[in-house]
Design a protein that fits this description.
Order of helices and strands: EEHEHEEEHHEEEHHHEEEHEEEHEHE
CATH architecture: 5-stranded Propeller
Number of strands: 17
Largest sheet: 4 strands, mixed
Distance between the termini: 29 Å
CATH superfamily: L-arginine/glycine Amidinotransferase, Chain A
CATH class: Alpha Beta
Number of domains: 1
């Protein structure tokens, strides 16, 4: 438990709701909008099937309800009109903590589109808008926008350990030229991170997040890290992922013990049909929703199946729900990137 009595809530703790943002003509999905809507319809159905509340951020609530056309019995679905630049709510949605063992907070960090790569002015207003509308309870909302921190860049075990990457959090385009020690101090002060595990290696072709941790390695209960591996020396990603694997074998828990390591397969290469570039396919970009894991698949057959069986090792009591995410990849993200879970005690629904 953190010295400053803050605790970053782990993804596998009880979840009340999941947020997605529906593609619209003003977003980068416009050139394949129908295909993108189909993708989000499949994602929304998968989330709704878990029984949690589904919050759909959209430009027009009536049109969004018609486009998703969720079947009766899908559970509670809330269509919330708000301004946004794009759909990757993982990186501008709220990060949730617990204070003093019982008080919960939704922290609204700064988002500058992965180091000033794209526009993000409207994305930065989403959490405040949700608080004003009562979707996030006003009393739990906190403005932390003076520090840039994307949801996909940090993982936690819920007990004071945070897993992240140096390339992302120490990028000069995010928080100026803060040193690693200074960023570390910010994570401790804001998230209650007593023990930060920094990975200095790991990168996927087509990734424009500067090595978000949720594409590479994820925390699981019992001091476990699930990570993306590569067993093909001819793959251009092999060297980076091998260095990451080696570093993972050397990092230690807060108590000084090795982590339990579980290796996910690397999906077969997936290429953009428009320009032939390789897309950042990874099974690590899954979402945990109570007793379910929503896992991205990429039409890889054997490897899709192997990834699901691998996740069951770390989460034996969870049901795996597969969602084909090849369309999400067209904009260089996947399932976890497109969602944000809201733990119990945060939503005002």
């Amino acid at each position: 438990m953190s010295n400053n009595r803050r605790r970053f809530i782990a993804e596998w703790e009880p979840t009340e709701a999941v947020i997605i943002t529906l593609p619209a003509p003003h977003t980068d999905w416009d050139y394949i909008l129908d295909e993108a809507i189909d993708q989000y319809r499949a994602l929304a159905k998968a989330i709704a099937s878990t029984g949690v509340k589904l919050i759909v951020l959209c430009a027009d609530s009536r049109e969004a309800a018609e486009l998703l056309a969720l079947p009766e019995g899908s559970g509670e679905v809330f269509f919330i009109e708000t301004d946004f630049n794009d759909t990757w709510v993982r990186d501008y949605g709220p990060l949730c903590i617990e204070k003093d063992g019982d008080r919960r907070r939704a922290l609204d960090f700064g988002f500058n589109a992965w180091g000033l790569k794209f526009a993000a002015d409207k994305d930065n207003t989403v959490n405040r808008s949700l608080a004003e509308k009562g979707i996030i309870r006003k009393e739990v909302y906190r403005n932390d926008t003076d520090f840039v921190l994307e949801g996909g860049s940090v993982e936690t075990d819920g007990a004071g350990t945070v897993l992240t990457t140096t390339r992302c959090l120490c990028s000069p385009n995010r928080n100026g030229f803060l040193s690693k020690a200074e960023v570390n101090a910010q994570l401790q002060r804001r998230l209650g991170a007593d023990h930060v595990v920094w990975l200095d290696f790991g990168a996927l072709e087509g990734d424009d997040t500067d090595s978000h941790i949720d594409t590479l390695a994820r925390m699981a209960p019992d001091d476990t890290i699930i990570y993306t591996g590569c067993d093909d020396p001819d793959d251009p990603q092999f060297a980076e992922l091998a260095l990451m694997k080696r570093q993972l074998s050397m990092v230690r828990t807060a108590e000084g013990n090795p982590f339990n390591l579980i290796e996910l397969p690397l999906p077969d290469p997936v290429y953009d049909p428009a320009d032939g570039s390789r897309l950042p396919a990874t099974y690590a970009n899954y979402l945990i929703v109570n007793n379910f894991i929503l896992m991205p698949t990429y039409g890889c057959g054997r490897k899709d199946l192997l990834a699901a069986k691998t996740l069951k090792i770390a989460f034996p009591g969870h049901e795996i729900i597969s969602v084909d995410c090849r369309t999400l990849l067209r904009q260089h993200g996947s399932l976890h990137c497109a969602t944000m879970q809201i733990p119990e005690g945060i939503a005002g629904l």
